[in-house]
Write a structure and sequence with these properties.
about 230 residues; about 20% strand
């Protein structure tokens, strides 16, 4: 059995960053300052990514390292260090403070995507499982029955981000309900699942952790209705 917390590939991370900080928007913000007017070699997009992702995360943090990374990122044949150094001005600080302030406001962007009745939840989590037929020679890892291989993928997806938050693979005979994530994953969230997860212990557990759930109901269920909402 493999239990994995989802880590998106680099392409997904890059795409999300580029959508969060569009090149055109960064350039438009820079035009509102004196930086572009004063320095034609000032590339705000390259400078932003160098400072935010290509320099600040490095173990060696110095103006010289920043300068070298920027020249590489902006694809410049040459740039005088004195000109680069002069960019560190009140205009420069104001520009990046404005970008940072907006990014902080958007930190809870996932919740902002939950509209109307869903905005009260931290997230909406969709839990499901699917069976995958495998070649029989994989039966030693994912055994369904004698000499027959089959795997089951158990996955939780976030509605706000469209990405998995947790996934796990087991042999095909494993029941869905036995592979639910643990800890506080449902806290503040609305969880959606099918009849494969129908279990009163699970319902009670989600409620105890300040979560909500929506499930299909078995045909023989007999509930006392306390509140009926349209």
């Amino acid at each position: 059995m493999v239990d994995v917390t989802y880590e998106p590939p680099d392409s997904v991370v890059v795409d999300r960053i580029q959508r969060a900080f569009p090149d055109d928007e960064l350039r438009e913000r820079a035009r509102a300052t004196n930086l572009i007017q004063r320095e034609r070699k000032f590339d705000v997009v390259a400078l932003f990514y160098t400072l935010g992702f290509g320099f600040g995360a490095d173990s060696e943090r110095s103006i010289q390292t920043f300068f070298e990374r920027y020249v590489e990122m902006a694809d410049l044949s040459e740039l005088y260090y004195s000109s680069f150094y002069e960019w560190f001005s009140p205009d420069f600080v104001a520009l990046f403070r404005e970008i940072l302030d907006e990014a902080i406001e958007d930190l809870d962007s996932g919740r902002n995507q939950l509209r109307d009745r869903l905005k009260q939840f931290r997230d909406v989590l969709i839990r499901d499982a699917t069976f995958i037929s495998l070649y029989n020679n994989a039966a030693d890892v994912y055994n369904l029955r004698e000499d027959v291989a089959g795997a089951k993928l158990h996955l939780t997806e976030s509605l706000s981000t469209g990405l998995p938050t947790n996934w796990r693979t087991t042999d095909g005979s494993t029941h869905e309900n036995s592979q639910m994530p643990t800890r506080w994953w449902a806290s503040g969230a609305l969880v959606l699942f099918d009849l494969g997860f129908y279990d009163f212990w699970l319902f009670d557990w989600i409620d105890d952790h300040d979560g909500w759930f929506v499930s299909r109901v078995k045909s023989d269920a007999n509930f006392d209705v306390h509140l009926d909402r349209p």
